[in-house]
Design a protein that fits this description.
Fumarylacetoacetate hydrolase, domain 2, 5-stranded mixed β-sheet, mainly beta, 11% helix
Length: 273
């Protein structure tokens, strides 16, 4: 099943089940509890705006979780998952714009990621039980200001949490194997990252279990599972996002998350005439 979240008729917010490439059945009820599909279907072309497929209470991310990415970064494989957080205010949906912040516009990087959407409250969950707590999966882009991450700050919070730095979408897909999906990122049509989730150091169910052992995961929580090799800062010369760029994250069984890039306008000087 593929679940969308969108603005539809009367400018109301809906969840819907994608039943074909061109039609959606609205969902009635709570996707984290009891819900059903409406009898009617709408044309996808009638959707006014796509939203992030979930409004997460928390965004939890994992660093250095692909073998090839750790290798290109010159880092040893971690002995346990490396957890960090992204502000929920960084979340945007498909076709929304990634904004290069005026305070750190020069070294903004892309990171294609498989994201887990938690379906029910999870605490101290064993790996063999983790699938029962997962609603589904979506595409994500862990956008990162590398200068803040590596030189200017002593931790990653600002680098990872600027507004618009967590695009997710286009849907939540429930019927995929999270540990054997092709994942790639295209920048202006050129493939920059090309991998498979089989390269994960800590597979998805282990991640969900580990995170749940350290914090309670509420329904709707999003876990970003790490990025493959090919990120911009490791390239020679480095490749960073620039205004006018188009970024696509593509994961088999889910779809394509597309966002364009713009520059933020600097604040006006209050003392100016």
């Amino acid at each position: 099943m593929k679940i969308l979240r969108y603005i539809g008729e009367r400018n109301k917010e809906f969840y819907g089940k994608l039943v074909s490439g061109e039609s959606v059945k609205p969902i009635e009820g709570d996707i984290f509890g009891d819900f059903s599909e409406a009898d009617r279907a709408i044309k996808r072309s009638s959707i006014k705006r796509m939203l992030p497929p979930v409004d997460p209470p928390d965004v939890i991310a994992i660093g250095l979780n692909y073998k090839a990415h750790a290798d290109e970064s010159g880092s040893p494989y971690p002995s346990a998952p490396v957890i960090f957080l992204k502000a929920t205010s960084s979340v945007i949906g498909p076709e929304e714009k990634i904004v290069l912040p005026h305070t750190a516009p020069d070294e903004v990087d892309y990171e294609a990621e498989l994201a887990v959407v938690i379906g029910r409250t999870a605490h101290n969950v064993a790996p063999r039980e983790a699938a029962d707590y997962i609603l589904g999966y979506t595409c994500a882009n862990d956008v990162s200001a590398r200068d803040c991450q590596t030189r200017l700050d002593r931790q990653w919070a600002r680098a990872k949490s600027f507004d618009t730095f967590c695009p997710i979408g286009p849907c939540i897909a429930s019927d995929i194997d999270p540990n054997s999906q092709h994942i790639e990122l295209k920048l202006n049509g050129e493939v920059m990252q090309d991998s498979n989730t089989s390269d994960l150091i800590f597979p998805v169910y282990e991640l969900v279990s580990y995170v749940s052992m350290n914090m309670t995961l509420r329904p709707g929580t999003v876990i970003l599972t790490g990025t493959p090799s090919g990120v911009g800062f490791t390239r020679n010369p480095p490749v960073f996002l620039r205004p006018g760029d188009t970024v696509e994250v593509v994961i088999d069984g889910i779809g394509t998350l597309t966002n364009t890039v713009v520059a933020e306008e600097p604040p006006k000087n209050k003392d100016s005439a």
